[in-house]
Amino acid sequence: MEKSIKSIALNFGSYLGVFLILITVAIYAINLNLMANMYLGLGMIALIIGVGIFATSKVKQGLNGFISFKDAFSAYFITTVLGVVISSIFSFILFSFIDPDAAEEIKKITIEATINTMKGFNAPVDVIAASVEEMEKTDQFSLGSTAQSLVFGSLFQAVIGLIVGAIMKKSNPDE
What we know:
Layout: H1 3-30, H2 38-62, H3 69-98, H4 100-120, H5 125-137, H6 143-168
Helix pairs in contact: 1-2, 1-3, 2-3, 2-6, 3-4, 3-6, 4-5
């Protein structure tokens, strides 16, 4: 992988991480209920994917409009995973050490939102109760939960990266 590909991806990944931290701080300061907002979560996923695609296009532009599948995938994957890792580390520190009470409040808000969503889908009471019981046992900001989330998030970003790589690749006809 060329240095320019790695440096562009690392730069955009760092920018993404800082931007995600700023969003987390804003939500923390404004209203913790937003942490359980499905639309905000989908918006953040779209933002992450969008920045990854933008970084990949910048790499392609830097390579005179030509990029291999491998380089396109690498640019996307490095950008998105780095951004999410930076943000996750910040969230882990914030909710595990700085303000663990906020983590408990977020857990309550998330459980309440889950109950309302499941009731909206007419889920059986015993299924709702089992889900709530499982959620109460889980610390979503623990090191293990954060690591598990990063693994699954990385797999998701890898799949999206494969699609982006396939779409963005363009061979140089002169080579």
